[in-house]
Structures are given as structure tokens and as C-alpha cells.
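Quick start: what a row looks like.
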Amino acid sequence: MRTTSPKQFLSLAGVPILVHTLRKFSRCPSVNTAIVPMRKADIAAFEPVIEREGLLGFTRLVPGGIHRQDSVYCGFQEVDPGTEVVVVHDAVRPFVEPQSIDAVITEASSSGAAILAIPCTDTIKQIDKTHIVTTLPRDKIVLVQTPQAFRYSVLREGFEKAQAENFYATDESCLVERLGYPVTVLRGSETNIKITKPGDLPLAELLMRQEQAAAKA
């Protein structure tokens, strides 16, 4: 993102991106707590923001880890073991729809694991540095999003196996796949973007204006 500030704290329509994301989850009756891992130095600075937004009771800020997976595990360790379903979401996906959150929770309650994904519309090539190895069948490829939801016991087993084998994945569904458990794929949304690059911010501002206009209509 070419900034010294973590991207989840960047302003979107005058509010940190993370706040927009937390607002979406706070509107879901099936979600009772949001646990947010972050750098220790950021916790004290962000708590007043959460309090001002009326999200302090709903949100718990906890120290994260070095890598993404480490941070998610730090958050997972704070989850009540009596929890039925755990949802993992990227802080910088503020346009997630509450009905999508409910959908993955409902499916994970039934089948054990569920993720969001959208069809791939581009041609996908597997390469070896600068040369094509093969062309992958596009109809069997999806672009994975979050939220991803798992029964507590399933995700715990995935983390335990990964830690024992020092394995790191780019998302939590991979940890569950390695156990041999099925993961249900639900249809995501093209607007559920991950704000990662500088060029994503103008699109995010446009989507936010559209979202706010729709809320007022």
C-alpha cells in the first residue's frame, strides 16, 4: 500500500477501513464477538476509536503475531471453546454483505467448513518464473474471499496440525483441507474486494458512496 500505517487503519469515507468492517459484523445477530489481532503498539491507539464508534463491547483487540496465520491463531486462542462456529475475515474487506456472513455461518454449522468465492473470468496459467507450464481449466478455478467459517473443533484441529508440522497457508480453509475435511464453497460477491494496493482505494471510495446512497434510499 506504500504507507507506514497498516492498511486497515487507512481512512475510507473519513473512517478507518477496519471500523467499516466491524460495523458489518456487528449487524449480524449470529455474531456476538469480534476478536481483532493487531500490533501491540496499535491497540492503545485504536481502542478510543472503537469506543467512539460504540463497538467496544462487541470488539476485543488482542496482540497478533508475525505472520497472518500467527495472528489468526492468536485471535483463535481468545475464542471461548464453547463457541459453535468461528469466522475468519480480512480486516480490509469492508464491503462484505451481512447475508454472506450469515450464509457461511449457517453452512459451517451444518457441514463443518464454508468459504466464499467468485468465479474466475480470466485465463489462468501455471508458470515457471517466465515460462508457461500449463493452462489451468478456468471452470475449475475460483477466487477465494473471506469470511470463512468453521466449526470450532475443526479449525482447532487444523491449527494444531499446522503448528506441529510448521506449515503456513494463505488462508484457513487450506488448514482444514489438509485434514481431509470437505469445505463448502458459497458464491461471494464481486464487490467484496480486498483493499490491498493504492489503486484499490478509489474503487473502495466509489463502492462506499454507492453503499451509503443505497442505505439512504
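That is the whole record. The chain has a mean pLDDT of 96. Residues 7-216 form a domain with the Spore Coat Polysaccharide Biosynthesis Protein SpsA; Chain A fold (CATH 3.90.550.10).
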